[in-house]
Fold this protein.
Amino acid sequence: MCQEDDWVNGSQKETDDLSVGANGALKRRSTGVITQGSLTDGVEMKLNPDRSVEDVKAGKFVVIEGFKNEFFSMITDLRLDATNPDILLYPPREGDELLHSVLNGASTYVTVSMRPMLMLEKGERVEGDARPVKTIPSHFSKVVEAEEADVSRVFGSESMDDRFFNMGTPLDMETPVCINLDRFGERSNGIFGKTGTGKSFLTRLVLCGMIRNEKAVNLIFDMHNEYGYQAMKESGSGQGSFVKGLKQLFGNKVALFSLDPESTRKRGAQPDHEVHISYDQVTVEDVIALQDELQLNPTAAESAYLVYAVYKHRWLRQLLSVDGPDIEQFAEDLGANKSSLSALHRKLKRLDHFPFLAERMAGPDAVDAMLDYIDRGIHIVLEFGRQTSMLAYLLVANILSRRIHEKYVEKSEIYFATQRPEDKPRQLMITIEEAHKFLNPATAKQTIFGTIAREMRKYYVSLLVVDQRPSGIDEEVLSQLGTKITALLNDEKDIQAVLTGVSNASGLRSVLASLDSKQQALMFGHAVPMPVVVKTRDYDEAFYKAMGDVGEGERKEKAKRASSAVFGD
Amino acid sequence: MSIVSQDYLGEVVESSTALFTAECRELNGSPAFGSFVMTDTIPVVYGVVFNVSTRSMEPNRRPTAYGKTEEELRMEQPQIFELLRTEFEVAVIGFRDEEGPRRSLPPLPPRIHSFVNACPEADLKALTRNGDFVRAILSQQRLPTDDLIIAATRNAWHARGYDMPYLVGLGKDLSRLVRDDYDRLSSMMRRITE
């Protein structure tokens, strides 16, 4: 009956809500009490009548104060309940405030479903691997809103360690949520979201973190020229303006490679390297990977291998050099099926139009140049310029990644043999967009990206998969992704695909579908101790500054000071 | 009995643990239905008036109708008013011990001939801090429960200067006490505020 006294002293209630936590300092506001639940389905709380249901949002981060442990949980669902069905049949008249208030919290109440995601002993911090939740809080455990200290207890903070990188803030809070970049770099990761929900923005954010904290070298296949040099800002403050690219933020830590140097120059940037690919570098596997895009017949592979058997690495050049009527003779010489070979020939002719495909290599090989940069720890953004066709993207990404991967396997094997720290290859993360084109169930087995995703970090290469259609990605690959950062997804199939390999996915499903369409993302997996919804941080001047970028004026000032120090005034 | 306070309301003439009856000091001088009263016994017993009746002192003689106003009758036949008496019945809702008012039945009923007074505001507030007094009323068998709750609640609410949060809190308790009988609850809440 002690609860009954609550309403007598309204003023006293406020102070009761502020509890003193285990460490004696924490004061958190009570939201409700646990009434029922289970380990498998999550727990439910009855919302305090003085809290408005509209202030409680799906995805919000709350703490359940158990007897011994604190359960860090995410709100997954909200439900309006009534003790008596009559109330629902004859709702209080409009304007009957009294009856409304009397019913609120007593006969009509709000049930909030929560999913405990992480369990910590009172006062304990997250160290190493997060412990999964193995029990549930007891009846009437208090549910409180998470405070700043809770967030940094769970997610760490940038000031603690350079492993942590601020990604944004939890819903309705101001404390940064950090991801652990060490753990992020260890495995392949995914960034998902419907088109226009800020995938590129999230990717740029993560890449900034990786570059600034030097956790892995990045190779970015930048299909839409968004990462290297300037990009249009789609949301947040200053919408429609241009934001700085990685090259502008990190200067010579980032090298700009371009398939279309002219386009890059037009946008005001000078590419560090122009990429050309010679016909001889294209293998049969690279062409097979384009099966969907080129609409190759199942027999195409056989025909291509026949050409390869004779001409070896010159196979493509040889095949494309044959013209019209000669193709039949060519097929006959090889002993290949005429119609099949001529179909292959016809379809591969499309490759002839790519300006970056060169007969002979003019300069140094792009892959060698890339590896050279990578060895020096310089990140690479490969711009496609006007070569935005999916075919070009697939072809180039495949060819380059395959060869880089080969070299990495060699390097790793040397390191495994010598075990000398200086032989250890640098961790490499390859960013690919439109990933379902590389990793769909049909091609994931063949393309190099499928191999990288599955082999994981064995050879120090991992993927950052960026995609808007995760259901198109092979399930095996999806389940191997360590950390997933996803913006809003509506399609049930996509949601299901993203949650592949996640235990207790049901609660996250509703959270994922209820994200805002801008600047909100759900992060879960290897690099965060528990799933969390964040309002992503703004990509603005403050962010540039945090990344070590100095403003225009400051830079000039600095240069002036340096020059006067050297040459005198 | 030493000095008799002249402003007492009545005198206990029938007593039990849960209910007692008091005869008014003056004819028609009863406290209002639903008002809070207390005895001057030890322990002090608190209750709510739930029934008021005026009748002949002689059980076998009924007053007859004269067709005259009370004023005319008082002039012409003053003796008939001496033969009438007013009684009120009280449902016990609490008692006082060393620590103050308690919201449960007293260890002993009030003694016969003890005096009944109006309950002071401080005690009334203490007794009506929460819905326990409503529960005491509801647990009695032969009371006009709903109307008594309405009248008593109005008194308690009045003592708090018609404070809305108080009434809302009381309403929540009431809702539980009437077992979520929504129809009954909404009717009672409406009549309390009318």
Residues 328 and 339 of chain A are 8 Å apart (CA to CA). Residues 390-418 of chain A form the longest helix (29 residues). DSSP finds 23 helices and 23 strands in chain A.
